[in-house]
Amino acid sequence: MLTILGFAMIATFLVLIMTKKMSPIAALVLIPALFCVAVGQGAQLGDYVIDGVGNLAPTAAMLMFAIVYFGVMIDVGLFDPIVRAILRFCKADPMRIVVGTAVLAAIVSLDGDGSTTFMITVSAMYPLYKRLKMSLVVMTGVAATANGVMNTLPWGGPTARAATALKLDASEIFVPMIPALAVGLLAVFLLAYVLGLRERKRLGVLTLDEALVREPERETVTVGGGGSSGGAAVGGTGGSTAGGDGKGGGVRLRKNPASPASPSSRGSGTTDADPAESTGDDEEFKGLDPNRPTLRPKLYWFNAGLTVALLTAMIMELMPIPVLFLLGAALALTVNFPHMPDQRARIAAHADNVLNVSGMVFAAAVFTGVLTGTGMVEHMADWVVGAVPDAMGPHMAIVTGLLSLPLTYFMSNDGFYFGVVPVLAEAGAAHGVSPLEIARASLAGQALHMSSPLVPAVYVLVGMARVEFGDHTRFTVKWAVLTSLVVLGAGILFGTI
To answer: Which of 61-75, 96-110, 254-268, 301-315 has the lowest average pLDDT?
Structure first.
């Protein structure tokens, strides 16, 4: 009976969140509470929840302060020079632009938020793709796949969910997987290189002046997240361009009232180009709003050093990850925003993300607590063990990795990590497979997951890039599956799975 009720609870949870009848937080709390009463153990519900909250508190603290830390780093401009450098590297070479897209998406993914990553990446790269007539699905596909690999960071979500569901330390899951994930990221860069060569073959290598001459639709494209609406400077530095002086190589796009506005400009005006009008380094390639009041240019090297030290300490496991991010967030806020009103404003600016993620973790304490406390997970594991052929039992980690591809695509991370992974871990334990191996293998499918229709961030990506979701899916899925298999294969090769 507990086996049937356990699977029924998971199925109910999955159906409700996939059909959006309930939010994940509400479903994580109410569904297990009802099933706990149904199995006759309602009196023990409080104990199950308290035990779960105690186990998950470190994970919630890590997520809270990691989001605040990286949010502050974006606010103060830590990533702005990186964005500008990548855009200068790209110039007007399609191959460089695609590789630059992958590098930029991977770097900005350090904040653990897919929506932020896609907003910054598309804002920076869209004008180049548009002006050079490059395929926009290449941009969305590369950005989503790179973000999927980086999404496995402990504060990104999947690793925290796996740690939460299996009551493990996130660093024990993530740190041994770094080599395999690095191979996966290299695979994304190689994919970007190959796709970029294909675009270069189709379009050739152009200067931006030539690209503008070929552009049939004149439109203003703002590079950045909130600058002026009058247009932005795009171009490359180093070397000369047609009609340029060889010093900057940039081209400023400016309004031309005599030209009719194109539908794609959405009322933003039209542009024309003056090849002789170059811009200096300070005016080119603004991937983020250069005038936002939170910038702290004088503290750039302090913030960069703090971030490097924080990531190094995490990899070396000098302290627990929650403690590192707690200290890092407190130090970053104090140094960059010494006045209390400014600190409160920065915390409030990131409060939504903090509340959503930490709330999800604490709500999961109810789900995992009931699943474990009532004995459902043990009974379900016994059933799964009986269904798995004996020859496959010792390879349950590999089975988990392969299952993570379709399951994380067709269901949310909440459903997979809180509903499926615990069962696979119990089944693997019966064959001597460590829960750590199961947790690491479960991360393999994240490159594909980030293009799932259940991921809200992907709609930010395709919406800003003006790409049909179906076109994005048809182009991206095959490459994302290949990248996920590379991560899984590398994990097996390095002995972490």
So the answer is: 254-268
Q: pTM of this prediction? A: 0.63
Look at residues 82, 173, 98 and name the one whose alpha carbon lies nearest to residue 137: 98
Residue 40 buriedness (CB in 10 A; 0-12 / 13-18 / 19+): exposed
User: Given phi > 0 = left and psi -120 to 50 = alpha, else beta, which region is 452?
Assistant: beta
Averaged pLDDT, 25-39: 89
Question: What phi and psi values does residue 325 have, to the nearest 5 degrees?
Answer: -75, -30
CA gyration radius, the chain: 24
Tell me, what amino acid is at 33? A
Chain centroid to Cα 433, Å, comes to 29
In order of 96, 212, 231, the CA distances from 268 in angstroms are 28, 18, 9
Tokens linked to 171: 């660093």
Q: What is the mean pLDDT of residues 43-62?
A: 82
When the pLDDT of each residue in the chain is averaged and rounded to a whole number, the result is: 77
The answer to whether the beta carbons of residues 429 and 450 sit under 8 Å apart is no
User: Do residues 112 and 418 make contact, with C-beta atoms less than 8 angstroms apart?
Assistant: no
User: Mean per-residue pLDDT for 254-263?
Assistant: 34
